[in-house]
Sequence to fold (602 residues):
Amino acid sequence: MSEALLRDSRRPPAQWRLDPPYSVRTLAVILLAFGLLWYTGQRVEIGRMLALTGEAVLAAAGIKEQSQVASGLGKLWSTMLPVQISERTEIARIENFDPDRLPWFSRVEREELREQLLNPATLQMEERIETRDVLVQPMGYLWHVAVKMAETLEIALWGTIISVLLSIPLAYYGARNYTPNRLAYTTARGTVSLFRAVPELVSALFLVLMFGFGPIAGILALGIHSAGFLGKFYAEDIENADEKPQEALRAIGANKVKVLWHAVIPQVWPQYIAYTLYILDRNVRMATVVGIVGAGGIGQELKGRYDIYNYAHVGTILIAIFVTVFVLDQVSARLRARYI
Amino acid sequence: MLVFDNVCKTFPDGTEALKGVSLVVPQGQFCVILGPSGAGKSTLLRMVNGLVQPSAGKVCVDGVPVEPATYARVRPRIGMIHQLFNLVQRSSVANNVLSGALPAVATWRALLYLYPPPFRAKACQMVYEVGLAEEHLRRRVSELSGGQQQRVGIARAFMLDPAVVLADEPVASLDPKTSRDVLALLKNESRERGATVLCSLHQIDLAREFADRIVALRGGEVAFDEPPAELEDAALRSIFGDYATGRLQPARASLRAAGDAA
Fold:
């Protein structure tokens, strides 16, 4: 009987209205988005970008003769190669040089320099041959880059440690279910947003002014920015953790810190490791960059060499950065697979 | 001794879970709260340790009223066993059982997992008593069966030798055979320590088998309060309505058959 009633109360299906797949509103939004992209595309010269890239591709294929991009790339390439491996230092410039105690794998070479000099008496250009001793270290520059790279890794490591330490209180006060009051919550969440809003490169610029050139500025810049990420991620995982074990410990009168430590942290541990590894990974990449504003590590070396047109050295540095990031990516992928 | 003095609970959405329940549970009694879903069993239980605060009336545990100011004093003396076990799935059995001692451990020790040796010994003893073996200590809870998980829950609840144990539908997610074993274990452990047990159930046969006393709730009021022998079909009908004598019975029979087959 109830079925008959139901059938009576419904309209015949021929009169039903099925929503169209695209409403007028959807179409309007799509058109608006296109208009906006068209406008901004003009402003950032997307057209020119496509034209130049196309030209470069045609030039590479041998269809077109000249291309601004391709020739620029070619010039860069030829100045970078061969990359700098060895290091030559004039002995006269080395303080307390002791020829009997050379650094490992190094040798002394005598160099002849031909110089055109103006003789003041005759006002003639004369060629003069000057000899000087240089210390040659065949792997000297490579070693130097390796040391700088190690410093970069150390900056990334310590930046990550600082960000983890900073984000623990931020996560506790920024988790809605553990924060003691609204003020603490707002302060913690505000701080986290602020940290995230300041890019490493910008804060490093100012930190270099405060702490001077070198790794301190880099460590702090990375630590502060990534604390913004970790604080947010840690707090959100605390909020989303399974409520049941927490209730069990609250029911027997364990305080908040104990409940958090024994009922929440074991649940969120794998995610925390994943986030922290990601931040470490990211910090290594960013540590190479913050050096450019003087915050230590390989970036500082890169910027210095680039500014004095030592492109062969720049080539060595770029290869070192690429190899390091690649290796680190593999290592962290493996670590992640193991712990989760 | 556990005293409910005319407790009422109205939830913010207007649901009246309890409408004036008064109850005195003497020390050492195994008191089963029986009733269909929504009768207010959980609400009544959760008032004992303040997980739910009464809208009116009060609850006293050994003369101490249960209210926010006394939680720190009262709660460590009340063990609790949960329907869904409420264990940390990723933690080991040992850490779950030890966490039952957390309120009695200094915070710095809790942070370092440095439980004092007596608690470590107690945890081993409890795991032994609930019928698990040494190799279970290191195992993650998520690797255990439902029955084993509830055993871990019981071990945790007895870590501080509580005066009162609350069991909120402790066997609702277990099969009939395991249910019987788990309830027998709960009854044993509490009797040995003279602990009062307040256990909510919806299975009539289990209530009859294990209870010293059955308090039936219906619609937030006490419908029945007698020793199990007095629980007659007529009383059942008044608790569960037609379900008790009608549809519930065959379902119960088939469940039991399934349990026997298992």
